[in-house]
């Protein structure tokens, strides 16, 4: 059975097509971040027997627009004793690294702009804006660089709660970057490549060829580390909404706070796509279901899973987080890599 490949190396892949893809990523992912807030509030409300947003528009749908207007028009405050330059640049780092990471991820399937469209008609738009041969390494590296956003944001404030949030950022992100790398190392050893294209093609034989069956431990470790890297419950220690303050974002307001927020949702989508491509067959067809529909369903499932865990799971303390990382997940990840190497050899 013929399968849908992740991306085809065609001569039509031009700078214009790549630029269009980059603009689509920025526009659509930013919009999804806003819609994701509405979806998250509705899912949490349903699970906790509440209504969620209901008063702004039908079923609260216009709440997204109301929140956007609030973020763009709210007063932008820079604390008097803060380092103003670093305070202002930190949210930009968080949002920028999140979108740069998406450049090497197959966000949407390939498509060609119809011929009747003026100027751009016939332009081939690839699924990946930058199809580098070390795609996984690039994505994980850019997500790790996003650590500097919350870290600098907390340190730039003349506020002890912001500094505590920055310290939590450092210990959490640095710890779970190691788990992410070790968990993904075993699948890399099996496929023999760092390219997401190769991962997709290695699983083109149907559901039985999905790497989740060969690497279930790596899949679970990757998901846990993904929750920690995206600052999702139960590992949301960077701001920890159960506390009165808001960690590294304590003194932020308006669109600067919104950029942290957009970066978090963009990273959630990135982790969801990586999990789908690396472990669950990627863009390949599933019976009569087209590959592009399958990838959307997989990403939607992982996104919903993050919301579900937030509704059902309690927060953990920083010491519990470190104990889980270094004393439980790290040894399991190393043992999994060793066993995979022995089996391959």
- Structural class label: mainly alpha
Count of strand segments: 2
Give the neighbour order of strands across the main sheet.
1-2
Strand content: under 5%
Q: What is the succession of H and E elements?
A: HHHEEHHHHHHHHH
Would you tell me the overall average pLDDT? 86
Number of helices: 12
Indicate the percent of residues in helices. 55-70%
Largest sheet: 2 strands, antiparallel
Approximate shape: globular
Oligomeric state of the chains? Answer: single chain
Residue ranges: pLDDT <50 for 5 or more in a row? 1-11
What radius of gyration results from the CA coordinates? 21 Å
Provide the number of structural domains: 1
The span between the termini is 31 Å
Question: Please, could you describe this protein's structure?
Answer:
The chain has 345 residues and is mainly α. It has one domain (78-108, 132-344). The protein is built from twelve helices and two strands; from the N terminus they run αααββααααααααα. It has a two-stranded antiparallel sheet. α3 packs antiparallel against α5. The longest helix is centred in the first third of the chain and has 33 residues, at 15-47. It is globular and about 55 Å long. It starts with 14 loop residues before the first helix and ends with a helix. 40% of the residues are buried.
């Amino acid at each position: 059975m013929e399968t849908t490949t992740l991306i085809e190396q065609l001569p039509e892949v031009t700078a214009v097509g790549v630029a269009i893809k980059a603009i689509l990523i920025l526009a659509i992912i930013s919009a999804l971040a806003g819609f994701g807030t509405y979806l998250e509030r509705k899912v949490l409300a349903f699970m906790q027997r509440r209504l969620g947003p209901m008063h702004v528009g039908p079923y609260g749908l216009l709440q997204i627009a109301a929140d956007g207007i609030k973020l763009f028009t709210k007063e932008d405050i820079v604390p008097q004793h803060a380092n103003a330059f670093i305070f202002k640049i930190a949210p930009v780092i968080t949002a920028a690294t999140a979108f740069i990471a998406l450049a090497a991820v197959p966000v949407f399937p390939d498509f060609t702009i119809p011929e009747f469209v003026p100027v751009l008609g016939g332009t081939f738009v690839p699924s990946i804006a930058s199809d580098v041969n070390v795609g996984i390494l690039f994505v994980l590296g850019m997500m790790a660089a996003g650590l500097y956003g919350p870290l600098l944001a907390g340190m730039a404030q003349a506020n002890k709660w912001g500094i505590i949030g920055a310290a939590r950022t450092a210990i959490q992100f640095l710890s779970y970057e190691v788990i992410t790398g070790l968990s993904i190392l075993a699948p890399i050893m099996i496929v023999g490549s760092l390219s997401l294209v190769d991962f997709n093609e290695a699983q083109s034989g149907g559901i039985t060829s999905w790497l989740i069956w060969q690497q279930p431990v790596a899949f679970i470790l990757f998901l846990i580390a993904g929750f920690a890297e995206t600052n999702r419950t139960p590992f949301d220690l960077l701001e920890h909404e159960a506390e009165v303050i808001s960690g590294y974002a304590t003194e932020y307001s308006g669109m600067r706070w919104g950029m942290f927020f957009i970066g978090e949702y963009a990273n959630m989508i990135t982790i969801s796509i990586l999990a789908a491509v690396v472990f669950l067959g990627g863009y390949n067809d599933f019976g009569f279901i087209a590959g592009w529909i399958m990838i959307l369903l997989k990403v939607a499932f992982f996104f919903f899973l993050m919301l579900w865990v937030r509704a059902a799971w309690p927060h953990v303390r920083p010491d519990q987080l470190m104990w889980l990382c270094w004393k439980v997940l790290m040894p399991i990840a190393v043992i999994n890599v060793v066993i995979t190497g022995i089996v391959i050899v």
